[in-house]
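Researcher: Go.
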Amino acid sequence: MPGSHSHRQLGVVSVALITYFNVSGGPWGSEPVLAACGPLVGLLAVVAFPWLWCLPLALTFAELFTAFPTDGSFCKWVGVAFGRPMGFQVGFWSWVSGVIDNAIYPCLIVDTLKALYGYSDGEGDGIDWQTFVLRAAFAVLFMLPTLSSIQVVGRTLLVMGVMIFLPFAALVLCATPHIQPANWVVVRPDVSSSLALAFAAIAGVFTGSG
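Model: Structure:
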């Protein structure tokens, strides 16, 4: 039907980036999996887990979004299934979780910059106001696009995605000449006792709880 998609505000790339940053935010977390079980089990887990866990979730969400084409998302689904009070609860606690989770990243950025430049907080139990102001500034900076429009959010995440992936792309290019495929099939002798740790780590990576 002509014009049926004229209401779309985001493209596929923007939606993919919003999903990526909401769940992952960076290609970190695979190190504990490989360290716990060895490269062979770790690589197989990284390849298999998205098909066993993420694909069913994606299909479920696609069906629910099609059945309830509203902005309420899971709040609407839970409200229909269990009543509006429970729909409010899931929305409220999801918001609380998002506030707490998003407060971590300005701290990580500032702490990383401090470590890179050798900045020390000094001694004492008082508040380091310079660190506090920097963290607050980064938090406000990341909030600003959301005050504009969803299109600006999509473009901002595109820029951030490129900034995040470029260093890893450079590392891959530098490491490619040193690849030793024989190392890919190494399995730790005590792999059976490390499977639980590996599963917890990879579940955290792909569910956003890591």
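Model: The radius of gyration is 21 Å.
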